[in-house]
Amino acid sequence: MPSKQAGLSSPSVAYVLERRRSSFESKGVRLANLYASPNSAAKTAKKELMTIEKRSVLLTDLLNLRAIVEQHTGADNITRIYALRPLADLYVSLAQYKDAEPVQRAIFALSSKRPGNPVLPTVDQARKNLASTLKQLGNHDEAILLFEASLAESNAEPLTAAYLETASLLVDCLQAADRFPEAVAIIETILAKMESSATDDSPSGQLGWIVRLSSSFAKQGGYAKAASITERTIPLLEAKAEVCCIPQLDVLAELYLKAGDIEAHDRVRARRRFLADKHDF
Question: What is the pTM for the complete model shown?
Answer without folding.
Answer: 0.73
